[in-house]
Amino acid sequence: MIKTINGERTERTVLPERLKEHLGERIRIHGSIYKIRKMRGFAFVLLRTARQVVQCIYSEERAEFSLEELQEESCVRLTAEVVSEERSRTGYELHLIQAAILSKPEEASPIVINNKLVDTSLENLLNYRPVTLRNEKERAVFKIQEGIACGIRKFLAENRFTEIHTPKIVYSGAEGGANIFRINYFGKEAYLTQSPQFYKQMMVGVFERVFEIAPVFRAEMHDTSRHLNEYTSVDFEMGYIESFEELMQTETGMLREVMCYLNEYYAPELELLSVKLPEVREIPAVRFSEAKELIAKEYHREIKDYEDFEPEEEKLLCELIQKKTGSEFVFVTHYPSEKRPFYAMESPENRKETESFDLLFRGLEITTGGQRIHTYREQVEKMKRRGMNAALFESYLMAHKYGLPPHGGLGLGLERFTGRLLGQENVRRATLFPRDTGRLEP
User: How far is CA 130 from CA 134, 366, 394, 432, in A?
Assistant: First the structure.
C-alpha cells in the first residue's frame, strides 16, 4: 500500500509557551526530567522542555503512577492538568496525572547540571558538553546566539543583501601566512578557508550586496581566552560604495537591529542570564594613530607597537571612550597598511594607512572591515610590492580583470560578540563545541 505525506503535522502535545491558554484543561507535554524535589506529601518535578523549565506538581492523590518511576534526565511524555497558581512565576503549574517513560539514562550524570550554575571547571564544562549544555543557563547562551544571527539576517535581508554559501575547502588562503590548515585534496594541496573574502568579493560583481554566516578556520597556535581555531564568521560585502564609512554605518544599523530583535524575541533568556544589552544609537570612531596617542597620554603608557594594538590597549580605549561618550562600542579606523591584508585599499591622503577599521566592544575587537582594492592593475601591483605571486590568485583576480565596482565589507566573530554581550571572559563559553589547539572532542 502506498501512503501519501501531505506535510501537515498535528501537534499531539502542548507547547510550553501556550500552556496558559489551557488553564483548567488536561494536556500532554513532553521533555526531560530536570529535577525532582521531594517535599512532605508531594514533590516538585521540573520538566526541561526545548526552551524553558516547567514546574509540575506530583501528588499521590492525583497521579496514576509512582514518583519512583521518574528519574532525572529521563525523557517523558506527561499528562497533566494546567492549574492557575499566582505564586508561580508563570502564573500556573502542572498537576501530574500520567507519565509515559520514553527513555532512561544508563548512569547518573558525572556533573550536577540542574542547579542554577554548573559548578565545575571550564575544562569539565567542555569535556561533558553534551550533558552540561542541558543546564538552563548554559543553553540560554546559544539561544541568544541564535537571536543574534536571526537579527543579523533580518537586517541584511531588508537591506538588499543576498545570502551566499562559499567553499570551505580552497586553493589558497585569503589572509596568507602560516596560520592555514593544509589538507590533502585527492593528491593536491588544499586549505581550510580562513575567510570567505575572495568569494564574497567575486559575488559583489554578481549581486552587489552579499553576506554569509559560516565557519572559518585559523591554524593559530594561540591558547588564549580570545582565540579559537574554528569560529563562526558573520561576513558581508557591499558594492558601489563611495567610502568605507558606509560599511561602519551599515554595521551600526545592523547592531541596532540585533538589540531590538533580542529584546523582542529573547527576553526570557536575557532575563535568565541577567544580560544588559548595550544601547546602539551611534558609535564613535577614532583613527588608529590618534587612539594610540590618546591611550598613551591618558594612562601614561609608552607606545611599544605603532602598527597594532596590544590587548590591554583595546580594553583601555573602550574604557576611555565609554567615559567620554557613554558608548560601549568604538570604531578604530585607518590601520597601518603593513598590518592589513593585500586587498585592503590604501588611503589616498596617506598610503601608509588603509581605508579600514576594527570595531571594539567592551574591550575586545569583534569586527575587522574596510574598503577593498577593486581595480585589477592596482591589486596586482600591491601583490607584487608584497612579494606575492599574482599567478597563484588567478581565479580571484578574474573578478577584478573583468570589472568590479568599488566595494568593501567586514567580518564579525559571532562567538566573540556573544561572549562580550553576555559578560563572559573566555570565548569558549560562547562556543557550542570549541576547537582550539588542544581540543578536538566532543
Answer: 7, 27, 44, 9
